Amino acid sequence: MRRLLVLVSVLTVVLFSVGLGSGHVGAQDDPMATPGEGESRAVPPEECQIEPRPGDEVFALLGLAEGAGEATPAADRTPVPAPPWVAADPETMTAATAAIREWLACINADDNFRIAALMTDEALVRFFGGGLAADEAIEGARANLAGTPEPRTEEEHVRLVAVSDVSRLDDGRVAALVLFNEPVLPPAGLETLLVIFEQADDRLLIDDLVQFSVVPLTEGTPASGTPQP
After folding, report:
1. Which domain holds residue 97?
2. Is residue 115 scored above 90 in pLDDT?
3. 3-class DSSP assignment, residue 44
4. What is the DSSP letter of 156?
5. How confident is the model over 88-111, as pLDDT tens digits?
């Protein structure tokens, strides 16, 4: 199966002010240490234990079901208010960290239907993308999603460095910042995600992902404000 990479779009859905001012949950004693120094931060694929989401349900959401037309369009994102936010209680902090660990474990396990089980419908559609028009392309996409998982090698594991600023938003959702290392997908080094959760029964589901990392300029890429031909 094609390996799934932690890849999310840079989207302006958050108005940021200086300082988050909420609680902090560190994955390690030194959350800013480079992954690989000291204790490993790799999340083992064996931690991916959630029941997989039914394939037919995933295919229907993505417009890949038999006889399907277009994919279900992703719902408009709900704006996230600017911080400071209210620090979540310890139980919510623990639940958010556990949800993130299992999501990364399922990415390391390359288990698409278990990844889907950790996300809301809207997040699933954004993460996996829309349906394809041609029947051959649809069949290929279905086979790719439903193929036998091929866990990443240990060197390719996504590493969780820290989960911080777990907060309760006014609308009941939960926000957290996730510092991680994705060795397969550039840019190399530490990256930051803003993860938004919704409460669903007895667990938190990922509802949105926002990439907060600053991608370094590469040769030939104009800097901001540089005139382009």
Report:
1. 24-45+52-211
2. yes
3. coil
4. G
5. 999 999 999 999 999 999 999 999
Q: Give the torsion through C-alpha atoms of 46, 204, 184, 211, to 10 deg.
A: -170
Judge whether 31 lies within some domain. yes
- The answer to whether the beta carbons of residues 23 and 167 sit under 8 Å apart is yes
Alpha helices (H) in the chain, listed in sequence order: 55-61, 90-109, 112-117, 121-128, 135-146
If you count them, how many residues does the chain have? 229
Is 18 inside any structural domain?
Answer: no
Q: Which residues contact 183 (CB under 8 A, 6 or more apart)?
A: 155, 156, 157, 158, 159
Region for 109 from its dihedrals, namely left if φ exceeds 0, alpha if ψ lies in -120 to 50, beta otherwise: alpha
| Residue 9 within a domain | no
The whole-model pTM stands at: 0.74
- In a domain, residue 14? The reply is no
Count up the domains in the chain and report the number: 1
